[in-house]
Structures are given as structure tokens and as C-alpha cells.
Amino acid sequence: MSRLSISCPRASHRAAITAISGGPWRWLRLFGSYGNGFRSPPAPSLGQGEQATFVTVHAVELGAAARWTRAALTVAGFWTHVGEDLLFDHAAGRTIFTGATTRAGVTLHLQARPWPWLAATLSGTWTRASLNETGQVLPYAPPLVARLDLEAERQVGRLWGRPLSVVGELG
Description:
Elements: E1 2-7, E2 14-25, E3 28-39, E4 55-67, E5 71-89, E6 94-115, E7 118-131, E8 144-159, E9 162-170
């Protein structure tokens, strides 16, 4: 288990991070973390001479990672609470404060090498981002993001005594 404490010398904010990791078998690792910190608004949203307001953020993650000979899988659940979030208002053309928000979801990452010449990576995240006061889903926060990458590499001969390979990637 590790603990890290960070403080901001120009403000009265402290951030604490705690993480634990271990597993019952060599091929399986369980992990968890908690972070309590702060976030500042984006610089373009500040006016000349305006003080930046720091927002409190709490985050939790729990998951498992398994590794086998030809594959590895990581699955994690997460929860994040932002005390006073910012949202882009297309009508006003700027970011506005929306109140407290929560994001909860699951992330998955799978890497496989079924044959020595083929590698595949699949990753995805499902998230529900909502305003705490109304439960309304946040716009511009996609509920599902996924990606699949494939890479094939095959040695086709030798050139000047060195291996010559053909590589193809898709993703």
C-alpha cells in the first residue's frame, strides 16, 4: 500500500492518494485506489486578474488484472465526484459552472497474441456522467468509447542477411 500527500503552497488545498495492489496468485493482481484532490478551471475561462477557484475531487477505482501466456486482461470500476464541475454551454459560447457531478463506470483492456504473428488489443470504457442535483446526464460525455487494434507481422524472407518482414496494422 502506498500513500502520497500533495499540497499546493499558494492555496489551502491538500491532495491525498492511497493505493493498494496485490493478488492471491502470480497471474492475478487486484488493485484499488482512492484520491482526494482538486482541479483548477481551464485557463481560457479566467478573466484578466481573476482568481482561479479550486474544486474538490474524490475518485475511487477497484479492479483486477490477469496475465496469461498469450493474453492479458484488466477490468476496473471507477467513481469520481467533482464538487463544482464546468460544462461548455454552446448558447453562451463558454464554459459555465454546473454544480456537483458524478461519473461512474467500467473500463476493460484486453491484449492477446493468439499466434506469434498476430497481436490484438481491445479497450473500452462505459461511463455514466450526471449532475448530482437533477440526475441529468451530462452532454458531451460519451457513455461508451471503444477501440480495437490489430497488428500482423510476418517474416517473408531475408535481405542482405537480415530478416525481411511485412507488417500490417488496423485500428
